[in-house]
Design goal:
With about 120 residues, the protein is an all-beta fold. The protein has no helices and 10 strands. Strands 2, 4, 5, 8, 9 and 10 form a 6-stranded mixed sheet that branches. Strands 1-3-7-6 form a 4-stranded antiparallel sheet, with no helix packed on it.
Length: about 120
C-alpha cells in the first residue's frame, strides 16, 4: 500500500531555515515523480516544486526560487525540501505528493498525498 509521510515542519523565525522530508513506501522509485505543495491559511493549495526519479527538478514556483531546494534519495525513497530565508508568507501546511510518470504543477494530477506538516514563520 502506498504511503507518504512528511516530517520536519515547525516554528521558525523570519530568515530561518527548515528541512522537510517525505518518506515514500509502496511506490516505484523509477516511475514516481514527487512534489511539494503548500496550503497557506484560507488559501488554495499551491505548487512548490517537483522532482523526477533522475533528480531533475521542474520547476520551482517563482515565490521560492533561490530559497528552496528540492532533492531526493532514491535508495531511501525520500524527497527533501530544504527551505532557507523563510518569510512569514511561507507559513502554510506543506504536503508531499507523488504520481506515476511525468511532472505536473497541478494538484489534481497527483494521486498520492501525505497528511502534511505545518510550517510557521514568525516575524
Amino acid at each position: 500500500q502506498e504511503h507518504l509521510v512528511e516530517s520536519g515542519g515547525g516554528l521558525v523565525q523570519d530568515g530561518g531555515s527548515l528541512k522537510l522530508s517525505c518518506a515514500a513506501s509502496g511506490l516505484s522509485t523509477i516511475t514516481t515523480t514527487m512534489a511539494w505543495f503548500r496550503q497557506p491559511p484560507g488559501k488554495e493549495r499551491e505548487f512548490v516544486a517537483a522532482i523526477n526519479w533522475n533528480g531533475d527538478v521542474f520547476p520551482y514556483a517563482d515565490f521560492v526560487k533561490g530559497r528552496f531546494t528540492m532533492s531526493r534519495d532514491n535508495a531511501k525513497n525520500t524527497a527533501v525540501l530544504q527551505m532557507n530565508s523563510l518569510k512569514p508568507e511561507d507559513t502554510a501546511k506543506y504536503f508531499c505528493a507523488a504520481k506515476e510518470w511525468g511532472v505536473s504543477t497541478y494538484a489534481v494530477a497527483y494521486k498520492y498525498w501525505g497528511q502534511g506538516t505545518q510550517v510557521t514563520v514568525s516575524s
